Amino acid sequence: MISELLINAFLVTIMLSIAIALIKTRTVIFTVILTSAYSLVAALMFITLDAVDVAFTEASVGAGISTILFLAAMAYLPKKEEESISSEFIPALSCIILGGILIWCSFDLPEIGQLTAPIHQHIAPEYIKGSKENIGIPNIVTSVLASYRGYDTFGETIVVFTAGVAVLALLEKKNPAKKNKSQPKRKIRKNA
Amino acid sequence: MHNNPILRISTKILFAPIILFGLYVQFHGDFGPGGGFQAGVIVASAFILYSLVFGIEAGKKLFPSNVNLILLAFGGILYGGVGIVSMILGDEFLAYNILGSSPQSGQHTGILLVEFGVGLTVSNVMIALFNAFSSYDKIKEK
To answer: For FRET with B48, which of A91, A190, B98, B105 sits at 20 to 30 Å CA-CA?
Structure first.
């Protein structure tokens, strides 16, 4: 129990320091690399919560491929971020208030792993039993993802497909018209 | 693109193991952590690594753009097709029980095919995105 606490405290400290470094840095490449590092620590955090599949996704998608895509998209950005925020007081205040509300609400959450929590009572027992009896797959995550929630995963696949087609439609013009030239640029800036 | 021998040789050594690991994650997702999304990203990262080191043109020669676009759409079609086939066989959309001799083997077949569709779409979207970003740069330079 105490070792788990120590590991969590260690990971949260790293995440906090990465977040502070992210606020401080004004160079775009450091922002991308720090975001990737943040994802990697988040993946470790998911492992301590025993969510190995989510950790795997976070490590491969969050820390891996999105970093590469950001770097590829970054070629169109200026090297340095402009100091545009005139007053830092209002954003800081709203962050503190929102964080305070979230922390206050978290006191009402059931303890992690508590069996009487509503989330473990609703439909999860049926999935855990059915995954073994009806589907015969040891990894419950896969049986929920591909079979019980097959429609959702179909939707996700179509979302990925649509996003890819949309980016291709924006960028893969053989000769971009001169008046439309600023349009794809703006889109990239929003993504990055 | 890069003349650094360490990069070139380590890419050549790593390329096949990365794809092998991707396939392992893809088809072992029923038993361990993994599945279509992760496997797709891992396989895509092997091709992106190749394009980064040897240049985008060599990457396109290794994995042609038109094959990439066809496979990108084929993943979604495979997923939807499994659902349609289960409908034709007399069950509901994406109900896999009817696909095999027993409900369990039907579920296995369905999940395997569906995850493969997810993996195909995800990996090819990632490769296509990377190619689009890199090639757009080249159009602008001209």
So the answer is: A190
Interface subset of A 44-63, CB within 8 angstroms of B: 52-53, 55-57, 60-61
Top CATH class of A1-82 equals mainly alpha
Q: pLDDT, tens digit, for every residue of B71-122?
A: 999 999 999 999 999 888 888 888 888 888 888 888 888 888 999 999 999 9
> Is pLDDT at B6 greater than 50 in this prediction?
yes
All CATH 1.20.120.1200 domain ranges of chain A, comma separated, are: 1-82
Number of domains observed in the structure of chain B: 1
Q: Does A69 touch chain B (CB under 8 A)?
A: yes
Cα distance between residue A74 and residue B1, in whole Å: 19
Identify the domain containing residue B39 by its residue range: 5-141
| Alpha helical stretches, state H, chain A | 2-24, 28-48, 52-57, 66-74, 89-106, 118-121, 124-130, 140-143, 150-171, 182-191
Which of A150, A158, A175 is opposite residue B114, by nearest beta carbon? A150
pLDDT in tens, A19-56: 999 988 888 888 899 999 999 999 999 998 888 889 99
Contact flag B125-A164 (C-beta cutoff 8 Å): yes
Q: Does the beta-carbon distance from B103 to A164 stay under 8 Å?
A: no
pLDDT tens per residue, range A131-141: 888 888 888 88
**Which residues, at least 6 apart from B81, have a Cβ–Cβ distance to it below 8 Å?**
none
